[in-house]
Amino acid sequence: MDEQARKKELAAKAAVDYVIENEYLGVGTGTTVSFFIAALQQSGKKVKACVSSSDATTRQLLAFGFPVVELNEIQGRIPVYVDGCDEIDANFNMIKGGGAALTGEKIVAQASDKFVCIADDTKLVKQLGAFALPLEVLPKAVEQIKKSMEGIRGVPKVRECITDYGNNIIDVSGLQIQDPLKLEEAINQLPGLVTCGIFAKRGADVLIVGSSDGIKITTKKNKFSFKK
């Protein structure tokens, strides 16, 4: 296991402490989440069922013996949602969608009371935008939204993948995201845009960071600064 993977595993294992037994659990997508699912199984903790953010996560959860239900099947809210990120700033705004699951992730995050973000320390940034911003887009709107992104000095590129919902992903590089919430709301107004990969309106509540020095756990109430 390389150093970055080890850091991800440290954060993932620490997140198991936030899982509430015999309750619904929201589960995100990505390599760090894969470590979390394995750690949860090893812990022996039992959940009522998992609400998955993607088909890939559903397959992994079922393979590890966890029951999975659709969000529409449950009443009330999900107590805890655990997911990773591609970038996160000191205000817990994030860029997500590197795994093309941003729509499912945003839906489950919005339905959850507590968002626990697990990440290695390479994901910490002073300002979002070094990681290309993913947008999930209806196929017929791809060219129109590419032009809109060029209009704000972004460099759009269509990713060679199709999402769980049959849509395209446009990755937009070159953005300097000074006001994540404002940009998220603006992009979300574009016709044909399904989901913007900025998670500012529904950011993280708890951040668990794995580093070479171990783990650091912070919340929105305990502000801190990043070196990058």
From TrEMBL:
Quick one: which pathway?
Carbohydrate degradation; pentose phosphate pathway; D-ribose 5-phosphate from D-ribulose 5-phosphate (non-oxidative stage): step 1/1
Q: Where along the chain is the active site annotated?
A: 105
Which InterPro entries does the protein's record reference? NagB/RpiA_transferase-like, Ribose5P_isomerase_typA_subgr, Ribose5P_isomerase_type_A
Keyword terms, alphabetized: Isomerase
TM regions (residue ranges) = none
Enzyme class, one word? isomerase
Q: How does it assemble?
A: Homodimer.
Could you say which protein family the record assigns here? Belongs to the ribose 5-phosphate isomerase family.
Question: What protein name does the entry list?
Answer: Ribose-5-phosphate isomerase A
* Originating species: Turicimonas muris
Kindly list the organism's lineage: Bacteria, Pseudomonadati, Pseudomonadota, Betaproteobacteria, Burkholderiales
